[in-house]
Specification:
The chain is an alpha/beta fold. It has six helices and eleven strands. The strands form two sheets. Strands 6-9-8-7-10-11 form a six-stranded mixed β-sheet, with helices on both faces. A five-stranded mixed β-sheet has the order 3-2-1-4-5, with helices on both faces. α2 links the parallel β4 and β5.
Length: 259
């Protein structure tokens, strides 16, 4: 079976999965500045495991981000010896898509596909915490839409452009915030930013998820994305985390594995 490289193009990082058919052989990710080196280092090993050369590179249809710097799609194609194609969503999905205008991002549908494959009769509130945070509802047979919010880094960078201090997560991916009511009382610029960005965003996502769970009370909450750790234990619910949920679904979609 042909070896395929799937790319999840993020605002600050590139994530990838090496696949044969719908099965993920290996996953990885890196900051944009050294992503090409990581992929080139892995390519020979993955080709040996697959028993043949890399045949396809597909990426989700997000815009190639400014954070990629001098690394263009053409550069990556030349480095790996295979053209980068944009992944198409199959015409037929195992669930209806409740969008009345335009189409949702392929990353949102890929995450939904992974959840459907995990439990075809299940309901999910899917929180994907990356450059933007999406909170979507998948009910049995229907992707019903959701909300898009600016992510933690996006908000922090916007504040920094206005001359305020830059906020960052710690080594464990946790952003500083206080859950108790006094956590809303910022008594310095830094603590006011903590109240206004990580604390307020967590509360906004929690309330959105709560509303979606009222629409579908059976929905379980699943987390993915680079800042998923910030939303662990959201709402006191039992949450499940899968850092490669989108790529898992992308592998299924790219092989038209839509049963």
């Amino acid at each position: 079976m042909a070896l395929t490289l799937l790319l999840d193009v993020g605002g600050t990082r590139l994530k990838w999965a090496w696949c044969q058919g719908p099965a993920l052989m290996a996953t990885g990710g890196a900051a944009w500045w050294d992503a090409a080196d990581h992929l080139a280092d892995e390519q020979q090993e993955m080709e040996a495991k697959a028993g043949g050369p890399l045949q396809h590179i597909q990426r989700l249809s997000r815009a190639w981000p400014p954070a990629a710097g001098h690394l263009t799609e053409a550069d990556l194609s030349e480095r790996l010896g295979v053209a980068v194609d944009v992944m198409d969503i199959p015409q037929e999905l195992p669930f209806s898509v409740g969008y009345t205008s335009g189409a949702p991002g392929t990353d949102r549908l890929a995450a939904a596909m992974a959840c459907h494959h995990r439990d075809p009769g299940g309901s999910f509130v899917i929180v994907d915490a990356g450059t933007c945070v999406t909170v979507d509802l998948l009910s049995p047979g229907a992707w019903r839409g959701g909300a898009i919010l600016p992510g933690l880094r996006l908000q922090s960078e916007a504040m920094a452009r206005a001359g305020l201090p830059v906020m960052q997560a710690d080594a464990d991916g946790k952003w500083p915030w206080r859950p108790e009511p006094e956590g809303a009382l910022g008594t310095s610029t830094s603590s006011a930013l903590e109240a206004g960005i990580p604390r307020a965003l967590r509360l906004a996502v929690e309330r959105t998820a709560q509303d979606l769970k009222q629409v579908d009370p059976c929905a379980q909450v699943i987390l993915t994305g680079g800042d998923a750790a910030h939303f662990d234990g959201l709402g006191g619910w039992q949450t499940f985390a899968d850092p490669y949920l989108v790529l898992t679904g992308a592998a299924l979609l790219s092989n038209d594995f839509t049963e």
